[in-house]
Design goal:
Layout (H helix, E strand, L loop, with lengths): L7 H10 L11 H24 L3 H10 L7 H8 L3 H13 L3 E6 L2 E9 L1 H22 L4 H33 L5 H5 L6
Antiparallel strand pairs: 1-2
Helix pairs in contact: 2-6, 3-4, 4-5
Length: about 190
């Protein structure tokens, strides 16, 4: 059996047999989540690009705007987990294709919100059922009880990761003696 396909039990047995073996990166939850995301995204990306001409980044932006009255560029970048440059390039490309538009923010006369156009809404209505079907297929290996508790577990992990990041940034700021907090510099991008 290839090493990449070993079960956790097989790795544990192999590690006991080889006393010089150290910890295995594949046992870390962070690595496993990254692997899951990479594998799943490859299939989704292929489906969305071949059928609809959308990259994963484009789909993510459009899906986040679905059912919303619009979002600022900063908010969209935050929710998509993009840096501002990537968000701007992605939005610009979708805008050029007539799928997104920029509109004045009714709550902030100087602000601009990104919205789906009628063409963008129509495309999302075609793609979203495929995304939901892929999601259902992914979760089909879980029991009903596992599917019910998974969102709560993932939310707890995301909140913990955000808290860890906040703490690590604050500690780095204290070590550097910086007077401006990272939250002020970035507009506290990761807050929800």
């Amino acid at each position: 059996m290839r090493k990449g396909n070993e079960s956790r039990t097989e790795r544990a047995v192999a590690n006991r047999e080889d006393s010089s073996a150290g910890s295995d990166l594949r046992d870390l939850v962070s690595f496993q989540l990254r692997q899951l995301t990479n594998i799943y995204t490859k299939g989704s990306s292929s489906a969305y690009e071949s059928r609809f001409g959308l990259t994963m980044n484009e789909w993510r932006c459009m899906a986040l705007l679905h059912g919303k009255r619009g979002m600022s560029m900063n908010r969209l970048a935050e929710h998509a987990q993009f840096d501002r440059g990537l968000a701007s390039r992605t939005v610009r490309g979708l805008e050029e294709r007539g799928l997104l538009a920029r509109e004045a923010d009714v709550n902030d006369g100087r602000g601009v919100v990104i919205t789906l156009t009628a063409q963008g809404k129509a495309l999302v209505s075609q793609v979203f059922p495929i995304a939901e079907e892929r999601n259902a297929r992914l979760l089909s290996c879980l029991t009903r009880a596992e599917r019910e508790i998974l969102p709560g577990i993932l939310e707890k992990l995301m909140n913990q990761a955000r808290a860890m990041l906040d703490q690590e940034r604050e500690e780095a700021e204290l070590r550097s003696g910086s007077s401006n907090s990272w939250q002020e510099k970035e507009g506290h991008r990761l807050s929800v």
